[in-house]
Amino acid sequence: MTTNEKNYILVNMLYILLSKIFKLFDFVKGYLIAYSYFLIPHIWFRSLGRQCCFQGFPRFGYAFRDIKIGHNCSFGIGIFLNCGPNGYIHTGKYASLNDYTYISSLYGVEIGDNTRIGEFVSIRDHDHSFADSDVLIRLQGFSGKPIKIGSDVWIGRGVFIGKGVEIGNGAVIGANSVVTKSIPSFAVAVGSPAKVIKYRTNKNQNHCILSK
Ligand SMILES: CC(C)(COP(=O)(O)OP(=O)(O)OC[C@H]1O[C@@H](n2cnc3c(N)ncnc32)[C@H](O)[C@@H]1OP(=O)(O)O)[C@@H](O)C(=O)NCCC(=O)NCCS
């Protein structure tokens, strides 16, 4: 074995060791953050599942709101969860919210099991009311409807999801799409406004994978 090859193997082993240490550090840090929520229950989460992983400390609009997170969910950095008094944010298990995702709920946002949400995604179940041009928009309140995102959905980076939208199980939403209408299960939808371009293949004609 040449010296170059030896060095290559050594550097690789060092890299693997360091990445394992960092992973362990992230894991411990995630637990510490999650545990701090449990010290004073319900300040930030009405319920927080087991083994959730936090790369960063989420920001919250208000404390003591109806935010329920399932088991094994993961959170990137810079996540913002904003929940009004009648709103809720509920996720199933193994949901993943990537960096800088923003969820704002006055009516309700539900996210299913195993759903992946890319970075810079904005999910808002309400809009400013603006019908009356004689009144400042900021004084006209809000209108909206709950949002429901199914299980095993993949939402690309930079997507906007608006009020009343339902995204069916297994759907895929392309990066930077603006979703203003509901998307059926297993559809692939892209663009602004998001339109279905195809459906994912369904070899077995049963979607039992979603119940796992
Ligand atoms: C939608 C996506 C998954 C591609 O799916 P695909 O089945 O490989 O689709 P294709 O690349 O064959 O594209 C099909 C058509 O949709 C268009 N398209 C694909 N993604 C698009 C998008 N985000 N916005 C607008 N159009 C898009 C393609 O240009 C193509 O158009 P054409 O038929 O006129 O040529 C991918 O483009 C995407 O958006 N991925 C998200 C990646 C991401 O955000 N990752 C980070 C989060 S984890």
Short description:
By secondary structure, this protein is α/β, with parallel strands linked by helices. Helices cover 17% and strands 29% of the residues.
Walkthrough of the structure:
The protein has 212 residues and is α/β, with parallel strands linked by helices. It folds into 2 domains: 1-40; 42-199, 3 Solenoid (UDP N-Acetylglucosamine Acyltransferase, domain 1), CATH 2.160.10.10. It is built from 1 helix and 22 strands. It has one helix at residues 3-39; strands spanning 47-48, 53-54, 59-60, 66-69, 74-75, 80-83, 88-91, 96-97, 102-105, 109-111, 116-117, 122-124, 126-128, 142-144, 147-149, 154-155, 160-161, 166-167, 172-173, 178-179, 187-190, 195-199. The longest helix has 37 residues, at 3-39. The radius of gyration is 20 Å and the shape is globular. The mean pLDDT is 91. Bound molecules: coenzyme A. Coenzyme A is lined by residues 116, 118, 156-157, 172, 174-177, 188, 190-191, 197.
